[in-house]
């Protein structure tokens, strides 16, 4: 009998005091329910979190490292997006 | 628990030791990441030989975690107290988890876990030599925790700074859990060596049997380790086999004194001049025999692993069929 394929799942955990889910790793499981159960055992054995997401790895699209400079460039040349860009006269408070 | 990358001197040489002349040039972006001490990530450019070396090393590390569950699993049903049994089960569960983290790290290099397991099962990939030794008494659980996991930590802490990001991140997680393993092993031996004379003798016997195999876990001496130079240049390895072995010995000797146990090496003594412990010669022929498959438990370990895989085929098939059926319900 040939080995059935178990798809890859990416696992995200939100810690007890964490504000957002953080990627912690991946695992193989036949379906989402098994992926969730295995993620519970593997990634939260020591109370690492209170919420788990599992996502089929095939559902994720990643940005390409070759295009990194061009892709993320707009942030660097628009310094006016940062509040520190603006001059505030002396003595103005709560701004 | 443990992974390393070495072969017996007359075994087949791993691919990357091909001469420098026939290797294609290493991509500039890859060299730049290494030069600035950065991390190589899965989608970055990397030399094919770097990728292959990492696949082999990470996979063999993963296999070691999986096979390493057997020697300790051997004592779960015979642990001397409920507390010890609970601890041992938690430890073996951690090792399954370590295997999983490592297979996941290997897969970021474009390989498939099922293929890696096939390679383990038909002998194309190896696992750590240490798991081919039998666990004959309860005290072996202590010696494995203290010495084997201790050696693993010394080897793995530098891997947390390995140049390949997914491997380094997996090792951070593994190292935290490994400290639990080492301390529980130390506690077992400490309890035994401060117990009855029979318990102390059992602890000493376990240390006597596991000391030399633990030192061999660091691999062949530096002048007989063909892959080391390349692995160090690529930032996969940070210290040589002999450096790590010496570090392990230096930290272990004082711990043995606290345990009240001796290490089975008459030449072991502090060298004021070097600031290290000198030790007796290590018989590496034994290591190479074990790597070649001729250790005490090689056949048993593999037979057990292959049997579990084959006997479990129908369960995996059932899970896949169930998933496929519910996938259709989802669509409908």
Protein architecture, described:
The complex is a heterodimer of chains A (95) and B (332). Chain A has 95 residues and is of the alpha+beta class. Chain A has a single domain, classed as Ubiquitin-like (UB roll) (Roll). Chain A contains two helices and three strands. A three-stranded antiparallel β-sheet of chain A has the order 2-1-3, covered by helices on one side. In chain A, a hairpin with a 7-residue loop joins strand 1 and strand 2 (22-28). Chain A is elongated, with a radius of gyration of 21 Å. The mean pLDDT of chain A is 85. Chain B is mostly helical. Chain B contains 13 helices and two strands, in the order ααααααααααββααα. In chain B, strands 1-2 form a two-stranded antiparallel sheet. Chain B starts with 27 loop residues before the first helix and ends with a helix. Mean pLDDT of chain B is 91; it is low at 15-20. The chains are: A alpha+beta (95), B mainly alpha (332). Chains A and B meet through strand 2 and helix 1 of A and helix 4 and helix 13 of B.
Largest interface: A-B, 19 and 28 residues
Radius of gyration of chain B, whole Å = 21 Å
Q: Spell out the helices and strands of chain B N to C.
A: HHHHHHHHHHEEHHH
What is the subunit arrangement here? heterodimer
N- and C-termini, Cα separation of chain A: 70 Å
Q: Can you give the helix content of chain B as a percent range?
A: 55-70%
In order across it, which strands form the biggest sheet of chain B? 1-2
Short description:
The complex is a heterodimer of chains A (95) and B (332). Chain A has 95 residues and is α+β, with helices and mostly antiparallel strands.
Tags for this model:
heterodimer; A: 95 residues; alpha+beta; Ubiquitin-like (UB roll); 3 strands; 18% helix; B: 332 residues; mainly alpha; two-stranded antiparallel sheet; 13 helices; globular
């Amino acid at each position: 009998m040939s080995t059935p394929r178990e798809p890859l799942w990416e696992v995200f955990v939100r810690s007890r005091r964490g504000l957002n889910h953080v990627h912690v790793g991946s695992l193989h499981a036949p379906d989402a329910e098994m992926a969730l159960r295995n993620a519970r055992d593997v990634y939260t054995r020591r109370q690492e979190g209170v919420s788990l997401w599992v996502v089929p790895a095939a559902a994720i699209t990643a940005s390409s490292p070759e295009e990194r400079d061009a892709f993320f460039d707009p942030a660097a040349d628009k310094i006016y997006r940062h509040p520190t860009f603006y001059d505030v006269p002396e003595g103005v408070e709560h701004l | 628990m443990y992974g390393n990358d070495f072969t017996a001197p007359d075994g087949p040489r791993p691919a990357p030791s091909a001469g420098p002349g026939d290797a294609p040039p290493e991509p500039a972006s890859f060299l730049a990441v290494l030069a600035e001490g950065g991390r190589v990530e899965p989608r970055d450019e990397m030399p094919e030989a770097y990728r292959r070396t990492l696949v082999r090393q990470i996979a063999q590390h993963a296999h070691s975690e999986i096979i390493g569950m057997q020697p300790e699993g051997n004592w779960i049903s015979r642990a001397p107290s409920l507390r010890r049994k609970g601890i041992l089960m938690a430890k073996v569960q951690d090792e399954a988890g370590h295997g999983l983290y490592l297979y996941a790290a290997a897969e970021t290099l474009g390989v498939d876990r099922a293929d890696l397991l096939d390679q383990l099962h038909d002998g194309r990939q190896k696992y750590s030599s240490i798991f081919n030794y039998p666990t004959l008494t309860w005290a072996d659980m202590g010696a494995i925790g203290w010495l084997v996991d201790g050696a693993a930590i010394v080897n793995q802490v530098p891997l947390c700074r390995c140049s390949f990001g997914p491997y380094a991140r997996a090792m951070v997680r593994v190292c935290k859990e490994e400290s639990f393993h080492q301390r529980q092993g130390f506690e077992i031996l400490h309890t035994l060596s401060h117990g009855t004379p029979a318990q102390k003798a059992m602890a000493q016997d376990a240390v006597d049997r596991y000391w030399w195999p633990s030192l061999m876990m660091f691999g062949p001496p530096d002048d007989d380790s063909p892959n080391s130079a390349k692995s160090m240049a690529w930032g996969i390895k940070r210290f040589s086999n002999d450096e790590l072995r010496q570090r392990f010995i230096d930290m272990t000797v004082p711990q043995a004194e606290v345990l009240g146990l001796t290490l089975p090496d008459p030449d072991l003594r502090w060298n004021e001049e070097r600031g290290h412990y000198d030790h007796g010669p290590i018989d590496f022929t034994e290591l190479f025999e074990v790597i070649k498959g001729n250790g005490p438990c090689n056949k048993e370990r593999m037979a057990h692993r292959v049997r579990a895989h084959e006997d479990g085929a129908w369960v995996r098939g059932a899970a896949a069929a169930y998933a496929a059926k519910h996938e259709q319900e989802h669509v409908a």
